[in-house]
Structure prediction request, 670 residues.
Amino acid sequence: MKSTRVSIKDIAIKVGVSNATVSLVLNGKEKEGRIRKEVAEKVLQAAKDLNYEPNNFARGLRMGHSNTIGLILADISNSFFANIAFYIQEYAEEYGYSVIITNTNESGKKMEKMIHILKSRQVDGFIIVPTEDGEDYVNELSKTKTPIVLLDRYFPNLPISHIVVNNYHASFNAANLLIDSGCKNSGLIIYNNKLPHMQDREKGYMEALTKKNCYNPALTKKITYSNIEQDISNAIEELLKENPKVDGIFFASNSISVIGIKHLLKLGVRIPEDIQVVCFDKNDAFDFIPFRIPYVQQPIQEMSKKSVEVLMEQIKKTNTIPTTMEMFARLSNIP
Amino acid sequence: MKSTRVSIKDIAIKVGVSNATVSLVLNGKEKEGRIRKEVAEKVLQAAKDLNYEPNNFARGLRMGHSNTIGLILADISNSFFANIAFYIQEYAEEYGYSVIITNTNESGKKMEKMIHILKSRQVDGFIIVPTEDGEDYVNELSKTKTPIVLLDRYFPNLPISHIVVNNYHASFNAANLLIDSGCKNSGLIIYNNKLPHMQDREKGYMEALTKKNCYNPALTKKITYSNIEQDISNAIEELLKENPKVDGIFFASNSISVIGIKHLLKLGVRIPEDIQVVCFDKNDAFDFIPFRIPYVQQPIQEMSKKSVEVLMEQIKKTNTIPTTMEMFARLSNIP
DNA sequence: CTGAAAGCGCTTACAG
DNA sequence: CTGAAAGCGCTTACAG
Prediction:
């Protein structure tokens, strides 16, 4: 079913002026073209009467840009990223940009595919939460001089703008909260991921405990995203069986937290009496528990806002050097 | 920063053939054009070497379609809709379509704006979860013969395809579950929304209770989306204060459930000992509670799949009559 | 088997 | 103050 489209030409004919005049008026450039007021008003009226909608393809083809940014998320079902998507859309709109949201499920191959789809759709820039195995694709993309901002994660070897949280600092504080609350045998459940954002979380945790002489490497459990439920279940059981004295756990991501707490509760572990828990990122489900679970609160709104700002700067200017921004997270919901 | 674009022409020059030949090869139409194999291979190789990416604007302008569908959601932060977005994207991809996801926050004005944005981006069709006050905008849009599928909600007066759940039936069953579990004084917390999907939920609940002679209109509390937290808090307090015998509550939507349960727990109400609860839609947070909460499980994946299928049919064919599809939800997680 | 050419709907430098 | 015309990059009917 093809809808009958009204073009600039139709308006021009109806009003009895040229395409150029209509285009000028419709784009609010009456002054530049010094169009007479009466003409401008007639054009506007005709556009309304005919129910004119501009054709973005023609415009984009001519102008060479789309006023669209491509957002590549690693896991849209994760509420942390869902929130990011929401805010990025809000801020992009302020600049007159739309956002095409795509999802990779932490797969590099899927990321490559999404990059292609978005490129062919002529997005003016990318905001990417890259996957662990996606460095080459991001690098390839950046070689084409496309504006890119990496969000939440980054590749240390690529000179590409990125907005991240100081993960080391956040984890360091989270670990200290456990220690200060009396935990002598804290465990960590974290992704087996070589990207610095995850490495930093592990390092922050490790160094905090080491400083207080209570770091035990056996209590750090690495899990994979692709087998998250089973891996966490195993990790927790190992932690409890091998080390019956475990009295604290730091869950190093949003999805790990949700699944981790679920398993603890299922096993009848009392939080915080038996085991104290600190999480990375907030989750709505925390409201369902009759006790407070402290968490690392990332400045999601600020991060989203900045990523749009930095991207816009890159899109507008011809030559920008990469902008790196590190934000600080703070502990929240401390009992 | 404008990236240097490679066009079909560049390939044509490099290989020494015409634009037409390149285009034919690139679109896999060698046979139609009966291009020689050697030429085709050369073209393909050159495209690779030059890192060619097709320009969707030019293609869309010429072809008159975008291979993109616009998805208008009422509340992207609601996991029910977030899931729908995920599945629709997956299924659309199978047809070679991309999805632009937008959000209205239950505002009709915002919906109007999103329709305009998506139209100007030449989407080939719309999948819309409409807002209560959005009937006129949807009606206006449908007059332009644009393919539309309404999802989850619909307007009874508009002859537009829609995929919904049989809400009456689902609520009827949910109410009966409360009754069968021994509830004599059930309450309902539901949106004050005149759209049939919500009306049906109320009606199903009401009629189930009426049949068993235990319907008490005072125990039905209407709340608004815009003031959801406060309204639910008030509704629950009223329910408990005015009717100390309340022994069951049906929360008629996903977001109502989450907030409602949170408030019940905060007030120290024991579920299900003091009050039994049934919810519309599943929520991850349910996993955090050491008891089972039954819920109406909508076939999200099927609904998403069907909405894409129906939309594709409308896009492909010139004249289709509206398709209405009602699916059945079932009660899940019954203790 | 392949090329030349028109045209999709815009915007903009240029001419008047 | 306004119009005629070129051109963005593609696809396709037509001619050869």
In short: Residues 5, 7-9, 19-20, 23-24, 27, 54-63 of chain A lie near DNA strand C (CB under 10 Å from a C1'). The mean pLDDT of chain A is 90.
